[in-house]
Design goal:
Helix content is 35%, strand content 25%. It contains ten helices and eleven strands. The strands form two sheets. Strands 1, 2, 3, 4, 5, 6 and 11 form a seven-stranded mixed sheet that branches. The chain has a four-stranded antiparallel sheet with strand order 8-9-7-10. Strand 3, helix 1 and strand 4 form a beta-alpha-beta unit. The chain binds L-homoserine.
């Protein structure tokens, strides 16, 4: 049996829409075992135990690309990443499926080849690249090929996810985005993305706060996230260093340091309506691994 561990990820990180991503020490485990025939998917909710399962789809697509075959497969999914919450659960399933197929077929794909196939299935690379390579990444796609680069991140910074009890699909969250943006909005984001990356590396909290402000997606998406304003206010009052929507949402993310009043933050969040889970997350620097 082969087991793949894939980290949760956040994407966009404010202004870096469809490019920036970061991996966390919160993992999903995907185990693959050949069986005489058929498909067995276990460990996950009943609704995912079928051939529409994203791990299985990604596994089969990869085998097809590799001209490889299995007679039957059992896939066990143990996921700690909440589904449809903006923490990269789809990307983790895709990476798990692609890496599982690579291991089962003993194909020896490189990490870049795994990145390429996973990106083709997902459609954008921002969760995929930190999921595979770990840490803080910036990605781009050129002529359908994804590329990425890794950035350092100050070790004093931690992240705090505010995860509501409702889901938001990426598809729905992309529907509210405009097709055209103003030149001033583009300049706002390009300049902030560049400054943000260096300030995350230096741990420059004053700059991080300013550089996180986004004009390409957050203004359109916040109305889809009930109590967005309330969560943001609680964060501001308790010295959270920076605040952004995690991926397409609905999870909201705070960057915290030693000055953050974590206890009060948690207490005030518990008074809100949407049963927000407050989860402290540390950065994962390894990315997906075959255990
Ligand atoms: N960059 C993507 C988005 C991340 O914000 O729509 C979600 O997968």
């Amino acid at each position: 049996m082969i087991t793949i561990r894939v980290p949760a990820t956040t994407a966009n990180i404010g202004p870096g829409f469809d490019s920036l991503g970061l991996a966390f020490k919160l993992y999903s485990y995907f185990s693959f075992e050949e069986i005489p025939s058929g498909v067995e998917i276990i460990g996950c909710d009943e609704e995912y135990r079928n051939e529409e399962n994203l791990v299985y789809i990604s596994f089969m697509k990869t085998l097809e690309k590799l001209n490889a075959n299995v007679t039957g497969i059992r896939i066990k999914i143990e996921s700690n990443i909440p589904v449809s919450r903006g923490l990269g659960s789809s990307a983790s399933c895709i990476i798990g499926g692609v890496m599982g197929a690579n291991e089962i077929s003993k194909s020896g794909l490189s990490k870049m080849e795994i990145f390429n196939i996973s990106n083709e299935i997902e459609g954008h690379p921002d969760n995929i690249s930190p999921g595979i390579f770990g840490g803080l990444t910036a990605s781009l796609v050129n002529e359908n090929i994804p590329y990425f680069t890794k950035y350092e991140i100050d070790r004093e910074l931690s992240f705090c996810a505010f995860i509501p009890d409702f889901k938001l699909s990426t598809q729905d969250a992309r529907k509210v985005l405009p097709n055209i943006v103003l030149y001033t909005q583009a300049v706002h984001n390009v300049s902030r993305t560049a400054v943000l990356l260096k300030s995350l590396e230096n741990g420059d909290v004053d700059l991080i706060k300013i550089a996180l402000e986004d004009k390409l997606h957050e203004p359109y998406r916040k109305s889809l996230i009930g109590e967005y304003d309330e969560v943001k206010k609680i964060c501001e009052e308790n010295k959270v260093v920076g605040f952004f929507i995690s991926g397409a949402g609905p999870t909201l993310m705070g960057i915290i340091n030693n000055n953050t009043n974590n206890l009060k933050l948690k207490e005030e969040m518990s008074n809100l309506k949407n049963n927000w889970t407050v989860k402290k997350l540390e950065v994962d620097f390894h990315g997906a691994l075959v255990l």
